[in-house]
Design brief:
single chain, about 190 residues, mainly beta, 14-stranded antiparallel β-sheet, three-stranded mixed β-sheet, 1 helix, about 55% strand
């Protein structure tokens, strides 16, 4: 599956599970992409905001993430880096529980669902595991999230992926545009720009 370059900016509205908004800016870099974004939300009566800068290689595999978050519990930052071979460090500490993860998945972000889709470039009907370093929105804690994606073409030609994250009890069909960015995550987010 080939994808167009992303637009300069994109935005998603959080729906149902939380109320809020995410705005993202894409910029090519010497060896890949730099993605800057900010998302704010109210979820279960609690507010939070997360600013992020992601460094991606040319294949859209995560190389680094710099995060700043705020909630009623205070302000937090996190620096997450990976060697591109599935080994991670969080704030300079080696994190072997994340070994094998190739992507970062920010709980606060609809955009990060593009990372495994673009990186894997699945053919119709193919399914692949895509474990990720999952970052919680409220406190920026990081854990492993085992998940998978399968490309399912429908009669309209839209790019749809069967997504599963068993540890979170999630199974749904995600819809993407031709640049590999999420258009709709049922019950969570919808693309508005």
């Amino acid at each position: 599956m080939d994808f167009r370059d992303p637009p300069k900016t994109a935005a998603w509205q959080h729906i149902k599970a939380r109320t809020g908004f995410e705005v993202v800016y894409f910029q090519p870099s010497a060896d890949g992409w730099r993605v800057n974004g900010c998302t704010t939300a109210v979820e279960d009566g609690r507010t939070w905001s997360v600013e992020y800068e992601l460094e991606l290689d040319a294949a859209w595999a995560t190389r680094g993430a710099h995060l700043a978050g705020r909630s009623a519990d205070g302000h937090r930052t996190a620096s997450i880096v990976t060697d591109g071979a599935g080994h991670w460090q969080i704030d300079g500490r080696v994190s072997p529980e994340l070994d094998g993860c190739r992507d970062i998945d920010l709980e606060s972000s609809a955009m990060t669902n593009a990372l495994p889709v673009r990186r894997l470039r699945l053919a119709d009907g193919d399914r692949a595991a895509a474990p990720a370093a999952y970052v919680r929105a409220a406190d920026l804690t990081v854990e492993r999230a085992d998940q998978s994606y399968a490309l399912v073409r429908d009669t309209s030609g839209a790019q749809r992926y069967e997504y599963a994250a068993p540890g979170f009890g999630v199974e749904c069909r995600l819809t993407y545009d031709s640049s590999g960015l999420l258009r709709e995550y049922p019950g969570l987010a919808i693309r508005v720009v």
